[in-house]
Specification:
Oligomer: single chain
Number of domains: 2
CATH architecture of the largest domain: Orthogonal Bundle
Radius of gyration: 29 Å
Distance between the termini: 58 Å
Number of helices: 19
Strand content: under 5%
CATH topology of the largest domain: Arp2/3 complex 21 kDa subunit ARPC3
Helix content: 55-70%
Number of strands: 0
Length: 437
């Protein structure tokens, strides 16, 4: 159990003892439908093997169906086989399995207790769906809160995170998906108790499995997109070490502008891609020019000013970038038509390119480079306002000024750079990113 503090191991032991006590019959002589417990436990165990390996999910509908159908001790037993033999990727395997079994059993016991206290089992047994909704909703809230509290306690002890903030974040993030799982569990329980029986009830899980598969495919595709972008950004950072972290900060500033303008989430995601990859064309520029300490000659500047077109060509085959590619190509255009590579003016410049242009110039001014010192944030914003209408779109400058004034500017700072906002002399006009002032 290396890597896990002793206090966290003690916490796991306490939760495990609590879960074990919950699985014992609370009243002598209570009849337990063991065949139902065994069937639900088998479905949960089999589903966990597939769900955790393929979908990184868990079969909460089965656990909640057990909470709606069974007495609390019997419902707590449903989670044990599946959790104890589930797929675990990190060591220590046994401790993680015990923890998973203990927290699941305890959360299900609390949910079943809440559901039974509110008369939910009688409503489920009578297939009275409207009457079963309120007890089921309360049980789902208790189940979600229990998981958040137990996981939050583990994170607080193992990693030293603040308990209240962690528990609140876990609860809010899991409430929506667990509520959907609770509805599926309720439908399973009602069908189970109806004349259609357990076989028909378990068919409710089929559309849930399909939705998990679709969701998993989406996440795999998204992970592939992120890996593609990371590889390109790392290549640029290795080639142009002085701008390390610049791409991520431009992506962050571009997203801030997009949100302030009220753009939808899809376009904000495109802006993030555009900001991160706006300088990917530097891969086609000789390294000696990117790392040159002195002023650039006119010929050298013309070579560097080809990087937007190089970037557009490099990303030509990456279909998911969408309009981000136009931002990569046109982020050095100026609204007065004096920019490059094509001298577009005003509305001819794509909107996403106008956003990235402001974000790029803002970060260039607030970052220390080999040839310039960082300006204070307020000085950089003032320079952007001065150039609004000639170099930059006034809407984008106003949006950035407003959001930075309200929320501040807190970018990720790498070891090679000083923190933005520190008073320093104004940068020299020879800007390697191409933002000429």
């Amino acid at each position: 159990m290396e890597g896990i503090p002793a206090r966290a191991r003690a916490y796991v032991a306490c939760v495990a003892l609590g879960a074990l006590s919950c699985t014992l019959p609370s009243l002598p002589g209570v009849r337990t439908p063991w065949w139902a417990v065994a069937l639900l436990a088998a479905v949960y165990a089999a589903g966990e093997q597939v769900a955790r390996r393929r979908f990184a999910a868990t079969l909460h509908p089965v656990l909640l169906a057990g909470a709606f159908l069974l007495a609390p001790p019997a419902a707590a037993l449903v989670a044990l086989p599946g959790a104890l033999f589930s797929h675990v990727e990190q060591r220590p395997f046994l401790l993680r399995r015990v923890w998973r079994a203990a927290e699941s059993s305890l959360a299900v016991w609390l949910a079943a207790r809440t559901h039974g206290t509110l008369g939910g089992r009688a409503a489920v047994a009578g297939s009275d769906l409207p009457s079963a909704l309120l007890p089921a909703g309360a049980a789902v809230l208790v189940f979600c809160a229990a998981l958040a509290l137990l996981d939050g306690g583990m994170l607080a002890l193992a990693e030293g995170l603040p308990l209240r903030a962690v528990c609140q974040g876990l609860f809010l993030r899991s409430l929506a998906p667990v509520s959907v799982h609770g509805l599926a569990g309720l439908m399973t329980a009602v069908l189970w108790s109806s004349r259609y029986g357990p076989v028909a009830a378990l068919l409710v899980l089929f559309p849930m499995a399909v939705s998990w598969w679709v969701f998993a495919q989406y996440h795999r595709e998204r992970a592939a997109h992120q890996a593609t972008i990371r590889a390109l950004v790392q290549a640029v950072d290795l080639k142009d070490g002085y701008t390390r972290g610049h791409s991520e900060r431009v992506g962050q500033a571009s997203m801030m502008i997009g949100r302030e303008l009220g753009m939808d989430e899809h376009r904000i995601e495109m802006l993030r891609f555009a900001g991160i990859l706006h300088d990917v064309g530097k891969l086609g520029v000789p390294t000696r020019l990117l790392r040159k300490d002195g002023p650039l000659t006119p010929e050298e500047r013309r070579v560097i000013e080809l990087h937007p077109e190089y970037g557009h060509e490099i990303t030509r085959g990456i279909s998911f970038l969408g309009e981000a590619r136009s931002a990569i190509l046109h982020h050095h255009e100026r609204v007065d038509g004096s920019g490059y590579p094509y001298g577009l003016a005003g509305g001819q410049i794509p909107e996403c390119a106008r956003v990235v242009a402001v974000a790029d110039a803002f970060d260039a001014m607030t970052s220390t480079r080999s040839y310039s010192r960082a300006r204070p944030v307020e000085a950089a914003l003032e320079e952007l306002r001065r150039c609004a209408g000639s170099h930059f779109d006034p809407r984008m400058v106003t949006a950035l000024t407003r959001v930075v004034g309200r929320d501040g500017w807190h970018p990720v700072v790498t070891a090679e750079e000083t923190r933005p906002g520190v008073p320093a002399p104004a940068p020299a006009p020879d800007d390697r990113s191409g933002a000429r002032r």
